Amino acid sequence: MPLSFHTAVAQSGILEAEETMSNWVKLCTAAQSPADGHAQEVDVQGVTICLARADGTLAAVDNVCPHRAGPLAEGWIEDGKIVCPWHAWGFDLKTGACPEEHSQVKVYPLREEGTDLLIDLA
Ligand code: FES
Fold this sequence. Notes:
Elements: H1 5-12, H2 14-20, E1 24-29, E2 39-44, E3 47-54, E4 57-62, E5 76-78, E6 81-83, E7 90-92, E8 97-98, E9 103-104, E10 107-108, E11 110-113, E12 116-120
Antiparallel strand pairs: 1-12, 2-3, 3-4, 4-10, 5-6, 6-7, 8-9, 11-12
The protein binds FE2/S2 (inorganic) cluster (FES).
């Protein structure tokens, strides 16, 4: 008898590996997320996230600027980047990259589930 897809995946160990590689937790409700062109700090499980919306798309990146630890969520959004309020390094909200300074912030996956906004902290 042929195995179902889920049984075959579970027996292969792939499903288990995928489950242990993610850590989806509630970040806030969708209604609490920032308006377009704005950013806000959200603390979740000991991590401070910069939650920002640019061109209608939400993004979550580490809130701590890798230059001198400026609070990114207190910066501004410009050309799809969150710009640090202290020395104006700009980090792309899709990739986390700041090519001009050869620097990077972590970008976290987001998804909506019902009225909640979830983040993968893995
Ligand atoms: S602390 Fe962010 S640019 Fe300097």
